[in-house]
Amino acid sequence: MANLSADPLTKQLEIDFGRDVASRNLKGLATRSDGRVLPGPVFTDLAGPKLGEILWVMKPVAANKFLVGTGPAGKVQEVSFNAKDGSYTAREVADVPETNALALLPRPDGSLLIGTSPTAALYLFKDDKATARVPLPADSVFDFLPLPDGTVLAATGNPGKIYRLDLKKLAAAGLIEGKAGDDKLLADKGVTLFGEIRDRNVRKLARLADGRIIAGSSPKGNIYSFGTAGGPPLILQENRDAEVVDLLPLDEGGFYAALVFTTETASRLNRPVPVDPKGAETKDKPPVAVVEEKPGFTGRSSIVLFPTDGFPETVMTKPNIALYRLARHNGWLLLTAGELGDAFGYDPVSRRALTFAGSASSQLNDLAPLGDGRFLLLRNNAPGLALLSFAAAPVRELETKRLDLGVAADLGAFRFARLRGVEPVALKVEVRTNFGSDELEGWTPWTELKAHDGAFAAEGLRGRYVKFRLQVTGAPTDFQLDKATLYHLPQNRRPLLTDFRILPPNLGLIPAGDRPASASATLGQLLSPGPRGDRDDNEKRRDALLGSQVVPSPGTQIVYWAVTDPDGDNLTQTFSIRPENADTWTDLAVNTTDSYVQFETGGLAEGLYLTRLTVSEQAPRPAAQRLSYTFETDNLLVDRTPPVLSAPIITRANGLLKISITGRDALSLLEGAEFVLNNGDHETVVHPADGILDGREETFVAEIPEAVAAGATSVEITVYDRPGNAASIRVPLK
């Protein structure tokens, strides 16, 4: 594969809808992890009264009626959903002294079983009144699981136990105040131990088709299996620093488990914290709630499939996302999450993750199916209800995140890789741009892109950051939009001079040969292409040049420079000089691609010369777009005249021979002096008598011990200037 001298100037930005669209910016569309857009649900916040500071759990009791457990006032609300106007009403059906009603189980006889926290207590309510209360030796009741024999399993935390509840005995227990008694007392009230685990909390329970009971724990996040009669569990999967937030049994016998991995010990919710110095919580004096603000979630969530016969398999992972609940919809998994109210999915057939429409800013803590392709959801921060509907929407739309082009650019065509089941006429693509990165300020109005030649484009659009809005109208219920590509022309920026050196005179350069171009490319170069190929060639040429030999060459001058172009354009350079007091420039190198020039100074008059370097862009940049810039560079001094020397002064005192010489140069600074005695002693002095080597006239003094100078009858003194010119004098020693 031959190397190209330069890549096209047009750049491409791939729009991966699965990556570049947030859940809250979807309406009637879903995005898939391979970047495609599919039909999806519509998320709608519902209007209605406030149900509580935080909403923990929701259970259906009848058509369009649900019970919601709340905190920190420990109330249970009955919610009636009005499908016609998208609103709901609520009435309080239970109020427990404990802070939170974490677990609910409506009974066929109209009674309600409630589990509480931070004191684990079991309540039975009938006709909005508490008929029984049995405290348990634990901190929290997290979940209930009804069994076919009419009993109920209750999962507790601290310690992690599962109790079997005989509701008939429990109903006859009456209201037991205070804390739990011994096992015999609990058994008398219909509460017996079903099983226990060594982890602190049993968070979720589920029953499989074969009758086994599955339990998920925290803070380890283990998955356990119990027999139908309970007893010691089997561990199906061991984890660490995790919480099993939901379990979803499958008809064929397996199940899905949703796990959240985090090292945080507190709840994932920004839960209200009761503040009461005496710890009193009464009906007349409810606790004061303060919302504890927390930083964004930094853990990860996973969905694990436990097949009927086989090993667990992680099918989906989400970083920085906390999952809450699992459900099924037409073969898809539906997952509610936070901390920004995300709704996700998983397609077992394509084995791809999905992103559904979600809340603007909240945590989706629970959901309940309405039976017609719609789901009622609990929102937190701010608390309320929402509706997720998979019914076909007349207008489906999405908006991408802010996309960075890397540099200000002119926008070109927006093209989909492929449209499946939908025609371009059903699509409306809009764009807005910004030269700043602020999410809210500085954006242009939305501009519609017109469809033409299989693409969408508009003239005169430019910016550094872009957002796209896509609408699909009148499309069938099954369609797919592949990834899209935005073509753009980056701003043409001027070349940069990064290095410029005038080397000492009288040195010549033997350029090293250019390395042959590689006849092949690596897979890594194709998958992650670097800057433009021409810039790579320039860098290779400069690397080869730096390995060149430099040899003495009287009368030769070398000038070196390094020029780069931020856009990787091909460049040529013209180097010119002119005498300080003249106006005419002489070009010593014209339109060269080399990073140096060497020339003879013998034909130049002595004196100071000004220099300049003109850099020009070349093809493939179109001629009308090529930029050129002239850099004023360092001055060049041409000096072939040696310094003028004064008569040396020679003295002897205190066992030292002192030789002093003064030199003066008309153009250049002096460099130093050499003192060579005819007895073979050689002394070099580069520090002048005044201590600073900074003038065209300097005095150099050599102090030689008499013992070293013994036998010498003369000395040769040579004074050098910066360009290397030298003047010598030989004088006798007395």
Question: Overview of this structure, please?
Answer:
- This protein has 734 residues and is mainly beta.
- The protein is 5% helix and 53% strand.
- The strands form 15 sheets. Strands 1, 2, 35, 36, 38, 39, 40, 41 and 43 form a 9-stranded antiparallel beta sheet that branches. Strands 4-3-31-30-29-28 form a 6-stranded antiparallel beta sheet. It has a 4-stranded antiparallel beta sheet with strand order 5-34-33-32, with no helix packed on it.
- Strand 10 and strand 11 (112-117) form a beta hairpin.
Q: Can you tell me the residue ranges where pLDDT is under 50 for at least 5 consecutive residues?
A: 1-7, 266-294
User: What is the average of the pLDDT values?
Assistant: 90
> How many β-strand stretches?
60
Radius of gyration: 42 Å
Specify the helix fraction band: under 10%
- SS class: mainly beta
Q: Gap between N and C termini, in Å?
A: 79 Å
The dominant shape is elongated
How many DSSP H or I helices?
6
- Strand residues, percent: over 45%
The biggest sheet, with number of strands, parallel, antiparallel or mixed sense and barrel status, is: 9 strands, antiparallel
